[in-house]
Design goal:
With 72 residues, the chain is an all-alpha fold. Helices cover 65% and strands 0% of the residues.
């Protein structure tokens, strides 16, 4: 969840989401208070962002490795 709610991750630049990042974050404030993490991770608007995160994870890791000369 931390990666999804951190504004530095850049999810705001993707416009194909059903709701904006701001709308999702505002909705999650109350939802997180009343529901567990498993329920939160099953929300359709969260699922689509988790899928997008993992879709780009390998590319991001490769870029970090090239830039810093690391092997992650």
């Amino acid at each position: 969840m931390n990666f999804l709610i951190d504004s530095r991750k850049g999810f705001g630049r993707f416009r194909e989401f059903r709701v904006s990042n701001y709308q999702l974050m505002m909705g999650l404030i109350k939802y997180c208070h009343d529901h567990g993490i498993n329920e939160i991770l099953q929300l359709p608007d969260v699922v689509v962002r988790v899928d997008l995160y993992f879709k780009h994870a390998a590319q991001a890791r490769d870029q970090i490795e090239r830039f810093y000369g690391l092997t992650l």
